[in-house]
Amino acid sequence: MPESDLQAGLDDLVGSGLVFRRGTPPQATYSFKHALVQDAAYATLVRVKRQRLHARIAAAIEQHFPETMQAQPELVAHHYTEGGLIEPATEYWLKAGQRAIARSAMAEALAQLRNGLNLVAGLPEADRRRRELDLQVALGVALMATQGWASPEAGRANARARELCEQIGATAQLWPVLYGQWVFHGVRAEHNAARDVADEFLRRAQDHQETSATIVAHRVSGTGALWRGEIAAARLHLERTLALYDPERHRSLAFFYVQDPRVAALSALSWTLLALGYPEQALARSREALDAANDLNHLNTLAYALLFACLFEQYRRAAPEARDRAEALVELSTEQGFPHFLAPATVIRGWALTESR
Predict the structure, then answer these.
(1) What is the DSSP letter of 22?
(2) DSSP line for 272-326
(3) Whole-model pTM?
(4) Per residue in 196-255, pLDDT tens?
(5) Within 10 A of 307 (CB to CB), how many other CB atoms are there?
């Protein structure tokens, strides 16, 4: 877009009652002196002209302000949406949702991904299913993080994503979908269904020789075995997870699978080793899980590690340690809106307080 066209669009907006904040990039920040002025100014523009201006602003941000485009994809998405350009709008809503997930801003992610899903019906048939798949996969991650692993909405998002994977033959997106289906069944104590998904996950990952997926598949197989009381099998799978995991190459997996697989494996392994009669090794693994979670700076992973640590300390009747972990988890869950972590943390804190009397 020529700079003159951009300036013309900005002049139109300023002339309609918008006040441009000097000293900031011109893509960006406009403010109204009063909310009613905003409504009145916007209403003076006919719909076609509004759409044209929004589209021009979005294009200007892309072409002239790449830093803003990277830092605020939701801004570009909004302008493309209001400009009636569905394909780039859904692309940027997806980018915005994924970026919000990476920042552990899950409430923002949910809103942005739903905005994208509300638009996909307007895409051409050739693009519709693949874009919806990407949005549903990301939505499933955000829903599991905010509403819990077994929430009905998360289950629907993962089921729809699985359907789309099969329709278009997508493999890369299948791995987080399988994880979502496994945890959905496992947390609901549907252990046979969870085992079927875990077995499929591991088989497919090994067939594709996909190391990252194999790491997660061993992690879910080990955790599922622990839930079923198959302690020896759990240890084998969880230790295999740790052997395959490379902290430099695989730390990004937390953003695709809600929790980091290494931290999750260490947490489950602490329980497993305690059940096998190795309390010192179990304690070391529990501490290692917390240290790794803190180093990772991924809030859902930290909450997961704290939850397992709370219960671990309760199992070994260490009330002061259990209280400390529970209080940290209560604070984190309250700040981040994690009800599925807040509930057990509150219970364990209550137990620890009664034990200390």
Answers:
(1) T
(2) HHHHHT-HHHHHHHHHHHHHHHHHHT-HHHHHHHHHHHHHHHHHTT-HHHHHHHH
(3) 0.80
(4) 999 999 999 999 999 999 999 999 999 999 999 999 999 999 999 999 999 999 999 998
(5) 21
